[in-house]
Design goal:
single chain, 2 domains
């Protein structure tokens, strides 16, 4: 009984550390500019199954709450049966959450909170069983098996997530390396041919630029518009350099955040192995 309670307490403490750790703040709170290639690179780096098996967060929570909210006044055998039902919910959702190889912010918070709540329930069930059953009773062995299996699920999820965080950190670092500001000549030149948005990282609209240039010639406004476009290019170029450098720094911060998550997961894996 001492080993079982120790295992329950250890996993419960570890769950609490994960849920409360700052590594789970939303990575999307760090803005990224001038990073048009990132979406495709991120898609290529992740499996194609992307959460197709995961249920909506609230649906998962409702299902788990229903499974875990049983009273502890039942017979020991019934308590074990109900605890097993709650475990199945956690196991299935744990697998669904990491089906795409990555545990995102909302998934990690919900999954680990559910597991922590489940471990606490295991402790309550053990307390109840201890009043009526001998330490070598089958219910104790069943409870121990459930606890250890939960621990295995916990470790498996962390292993998958740690690897995904390492891979994503590398992706961010590579994206930071590919971000380079346009040369002064190219940036100003794009402004002069009516493509200022493209110069700033926007969509390339060739047809619109052609029409604008033709209208300049037809209406004889060419000298005026070119002067204005040249001035805009000269004035805004320093700001675009700053934005690009800030985007590189943001990618660096994102990479560090993913590495921190991976290190936290790996530390917990070691403590639960």
């Amino acid at each position: 009984m001492g080993f079982l309670q120790s295992a329950i307490n250890q996993v419960g403490r570890d769950m609490g550390r994960v849920v409360s750790n700052t590594v789970f703040k939303d990575r999307h709170s760090i803005p990224i500019r001038r990073a048009r290639s990132y979406a495709s690179a991120e898609t290529q780096s992740r499996p194609a199954v992307a959460h197709q098996n995961a249920k909506p967060i609230q649906e998962v929570q409702d299902e788990f709450d229903k499974a875990i909210s049983f009273k502890t006044g039942y017979r020991p055998s019934t308590l074990i049966s109900k605890l097993g039902g709650a475990f199945v919910v956690i196991k299935n959702e744990a697998r669904a959450f990491v089906a795409d190889g990555y545990l995102d912010v909302s998934e990690s918070q919900q999954l680990f909170a559910m597991m922590k709540q489940f471990i606490e329930k295991c402790g309550d069930v053990e307390d109840v069983i201890s009043f009526t059953e001998a330490e070598d009773a089958k219910e104790y062995k069943q409870l121990e098996k459930i606890t250890l299996t939960t621990k295995d699920v916990f470790v498996d999820v962390l292993k998958i997530s740690a690897k995904a965080c390492r891979d994503r950190a590398l992706d961010y670092e590579n994206q930071a390396k590919t971000l380079k500001p346009d040369s002064f000549g190219r940036y100003v030149g794009l402004h002069l041919i009516w493509m200022p948005r493209y110069a700033k990282g926007g969509e390339k609209k060739v047809n619109s630029a052609i029409i604008a240039n033709i209208l300049d010639v037809v209406t004889l406004t060419f000298p005026l518009t070119r002067s204005v476009l040249l001035l805009i290019g000269l004035v805004t170029y320093p700001g675009e350099i700053q934005k690009t450098n800030q985007a590189k720094e943001n990618y660096r911060l994102l990479a560090e955040q993913e590495k921190t998550r991976a290190e936290t997961y790996e530390e917990l894996i070691r403590s639960n192995s």
